[in-house]
Amino acid sequence: MMYIRPFVFPAGRQFYLVCTVLLVWLVCVVIAAMNILCQVHYNGHVRVAGSIGKRLPAEVENKVVPFQKVSGKDIIQNGNNVEIDLRNGEFKKEDNEMKSQQMDNVTILASIHPGKLLTYTHVPNKFFLCEMGMPVIIDPDKLSPEERQTYEEGFRRNAFNQYASDMISLHRSLPDGRDPECKQTEYLNDLPDVSVIIIFHNEAWSVLLRTVHSVLDRSPPHLLKEIILVDDFSDFDHLKQPLNEYVSMLAKVSLIRLMERSGLTRARIKGFDASSGEVAIFLDSHCEATEGWLEPLLDRIARNETTVVVPMIDPISDTDLKISFQPASTANAGGFDWDLLFDWRPIQESERKRRNYKDYLPFRTPAMPGGLFGISRQFFTYLGKYDAGFDIWGSENLELSFKTWMCGGTLETVPCSHVGHIYRNRNPYSKPDETETLKRNSIRLAEVWLDEFKAYYYERINHTLGDYGDVSDRKTLRQTLNCKSFRWYINNIYPELFIPSDSIASGEIRSKVEPVCADVVYDYIFERIIPTPCHGNAGNQYWLLSTENDIRRDSRCWYYVEWLSEIKLYNCHGQPSHSEWVYRDDDSIYHSESRRCLELSTDAKQIRLNECSGHERQKWVWNRIAADGPGRYEHHVSRV
Ligand SMILES: [Mn+2]
């Protein structure tokens, strides 16, 4: 019998090194090849039919333009029309006149000249890496001084990379980011039609129109009745006559101009009143609707008219415009804290279980973020739309969330519906009095909907209510609709909300040796616990000790980071989970895991953990009583 030596991989470090090098090389080659393919150049003739972004001078309109070497990145064939971003192109010498026009940040909507068909190597629109929601990487250092200025101006005016956005097609292709189950789901045949209402204030041209086109391109025509754009008193030039002209070319799209700054809430009411679809979907003006976004939303409303729906909101990067799809398994529910600001929270375990842990199915959520949602015309009208007394921005999302639940509806996130959204780090049109506006809105909200629980919000603003206007008609509305109590809402819809009266110590944590209190400092993304002089105004020196031995304020808990020897704030419901603190009879604060005690450093500049010694620097004065206010249950008596 012949002995066949089994094949054995040559072992040893060298072999793996060679493999790694080869692999890296291969990846590089593939990436390079894809980039080259994306740079396919086009030759042909186009007739300039209209302009996007800027009006072209009359002498340029209708001119037949030969071109070469236009990068294929932004070419879209749409019936007879071809849209080309000519900024990437270079033109023949004899077209100098055109060149100067076209290089001036103009994107041209061109149509194929009859008889002189555009000749180009056909690259499918959905060629990966060419578009498909991929990032646009720009090195500002390589831009000319003028371009660089445009680039920076774009950031300054919008708080996102307008320069990059302007390079991407208004019809850019996106991958299908849905979970596989979503593609097999059958939706009702008889779905209601929809009006999409988009409010904008000084939005960038390409971002606004990409929002519009994504809805037009990705909604079944028989379901999309109209898109209503509401201009909340913008002053950007491109949003004036150029937008009128552009919108007039689009069937189904209409434009309402408000003659004074009305704010998101009142502008939405105006847009809603002008619309007529059976369902209203509100979108921010910096979104991208994606494949199959509409049907899953309408399906829920068709089955129950009192269901209010929120899509999955996929972040679009504010710097490179890359879209990052969120799989359904990563979906979060919406919530808020006693500062009455929206935040994201994990989906309740009971809700996950109710859906048999099928992540792609719609799930109930206590609150909505507010930028993107759908509601039936009937139900929104029944609920009294929004409180028209809300100024500019904020609180309208929580108002509608509370109303939906307390007045007989259901608020759901629908993970099979995906809409991209540019999240910004700052509000580019923020005004100095923004916090006051938001506070005023929150007080109106608390007065009408929070019942006795409003005390917890008022404590956070030191009971300085000021003039918040008249809310009597909103209170009447609530009575007429016979809505349930806020306590019902908390106990049934939002049981994970921490109620300050469920605490065993509250108020400032004051050192016994120095007049300093535990406070928080924000360094980068972390919030670190430090001592600062006690000011007696609650705020960031206000802490609660929960019955679960969390030191917390709202949903933020103290967490000891061992390797840094620092105490930081983390989401109580997030990772890392639980740091247990005990406020002991000898006034020390004991950290169970490390078996050490909270100590003020000798220079009084740090709060850290040390071996428990009984030293005065380890003693803290903290009210051993619950925060004053209502509890979860009617019979609750505050432990004073
Ligand atoms: Mn937004």
Describe the protein.
The protein is α+β, with helices and mostly antiparallel strands and 640 residues long. The chain is globular, with a radius of gyration of 29 Å. 26% of the residues lie in helices and 25% in strands. The chain contains 16 helices and 28 strands. The protein has 4 domains: 103 residues, no CATH class; 230 residues, Spore Coat Polysaccharide Biosynthesis Protein SpsA, Chain A; 59 residues, Orthogonal Bundle (Helicase, Ruva Protein, domain 3), CATH 1.10.8.460; 121 residues, Trefoil (Acidic Fibroblast Growth Factor, subunit A), CATH 2.80.10. The strands form 7 sheets. Strands 23-22-21-20-17-28 form a 6-stranded antiparallel beta sheet, with no helix packed on it. Strands 2-1-5-4-3 form a 5-stranded antiparallel beta sheet, with no helix packed on it. A 5-stranded mixed beta sheet has the order 8-7-6-9-15, sandwiched between helices. Manganese (II) ion binds next to loops.
